[in-house]
Amino acid sequence: MKGLNLLCCCVASLLLLGTAEEVEDASEPTKRDRSHLESTLKLNEEKPADDVSGVLQRLRKIYHSSIKPLEHSYRYNELRQHEITAYPGRTLGSSATDGEITSKPMVLFLGPWSVGKSSMINYLLGLDNTPYQLYTGAEPTTSEFTVIMHGPKLKTIEGIVMAADSARSFSPLEKFGQNFLEKLIGIEVPHKLLERVTFVDTPGIIENRKQQERGYPFNDVCQWFIDRADLIFVVFDPTKLDVGLELEMLFRQLKGRESQIRIILNKADSLATQELMRVYGALFWSLAPLINVTEPPRVYVSSFWPHDYHPETHRDLFLKEEISLLEDLNQVIENRMENKIAFIRQHAIRVRIHALLVDRYLQTYKDKMTFFSDGELVFRDIVEDPDRFYIFKSILAKTNVSKFDLPNREAYKDFFGINPITSFKLLSQQCSYMGGCFLEKIEKAITRELPDLLGSIGLGKKPNVLSCDVTGCGETPKNRYRKP
């Protein structure tokens, strides 16, 4: 009898064990296949080392020798600092370091809280269930600006260390104060994708939170990262489509960067087909007043996390959308050097236009001054109504500058408010026997050196001297300010 009872107990234990294993297997979600991700991002390919270091060295030399002298002499970055709408779009920092010039492409993740920004980064890097994964949850979880970059081993870097290291591109962030640096964190991860790109995860937007409650200028910090991002993912999910003041301010900061913006409707497999169509339309309805461009931004609809798609949703559509996004990301990585050279050239064109405008303001001031004139009143009239003195029109007429490249007139009121006009020199006086003229050097960089550098890395035909239609700087870079 005892033997029979013992046998029954053993059978019951085996049945319970098998049932527990089945329940455990059923509760564990199926993982998604990652082969398409690795093939699209070319993570398994051993590419030959290209001569990036040589190109970057030449780019640094062109910037420091031909662009930076004029930029500092006419305090271009103070114009950007005091009026962000002077030049909407990407710009160099107030003191552009070699770290900014040589930095990897930056991908910035923005959006409301708990829409899947951190989960998307974990999925792209395959960090789920590893010591490296970013913390995720249904509640607001990311309260810091997290920079995920490459390193030989897993390492966490405090914000104060990142700001103190001049070799990195984050040293200018120190100007936002110590409270912000406590909310900045860097994570180094030994991942192949991070050898070619840097990810930045941001705190989720919470519309009922006041700016002063964060303890640092959140919008200013976002603007700093926006200005330096090569690709900007603005992530939404079906439950957070409303637009409040903070999100509206964010899209105002993105003005001029529409070509870098990608809208992502995440967690799309949580909806049935009819509901997904309604949510997609509601997303465009909410964003339409915020994005004033002719062409709508690219919207990707999928579910970016490691678990498999819901069985009763459009699996093939979501997979195609995901591959399209990965190809978009890979395109930015592949064109990183071309984009960086083009960006430095765009910056040089803006510095040149600013210098020409300051020179014109100064020349007009000198022409209007007499022995009995009050210099402050004379210059106030010029700044208040520059069109009456043909400041901007004269630049367009004589230097072949496009009117679409001119900065905001109102910006110069603030600029000259703290920079007296008498503290500047005319461009004709910015010349030396050994170093040459600042204007000639920056025009040479715009028309010849930077295009030649672009041609040297295999993009198109190697140019010689470009025409004004291409460069916006005139057919031949002649300094009309040089004294004969």
Give structural notes:
This protein has 484 residues and is an alpha/beta fold. Helix content is 46%, strand content 9%. The protein contains 18 helices and 10 strands. The strands form 2 sheets. It has an 8-stranded mixed beta sheet with strand order 3-4-2-5-1-6-7-8, with helices on both faces. It has a two-stranded antiparallel sheet with strand order 9-10. A hairpin with a 3-residue loop joins strand 9 and strand 10. Helix 4 crosses helix 16 and helix 13 packs across helix 15. The longest helix is centred in the C-terminal third of the chain and has 33 residues. The chain is globular. The C terminus is likely disordered.
β-strand percent reads 5-15%
Terminal Cα span: 121 Å
Q: Let me know the largest β-sheet.
A: 8 strands, mixed
- Give the mean pLDDT: 81
* Number of beta strands: 10
Model regions low in confidence, pLDDT < 50 over at least 5 residues? 19-26, 81-90, 459-484
Radius of gyration, in angstroms, nearest whole number: 28 Å
- What spatial order of strands do you see in the largest sheet? 3-4-2-5-1-6-7-8
Order of helices and strands: HHHHHEHEEHHEEHEHEHEHHHHHEEHH
SS summary, helix count: 18
Helix content: 40-55%
Q: Name the shape in a single word.
A: globular
Structural class: alpha/beta
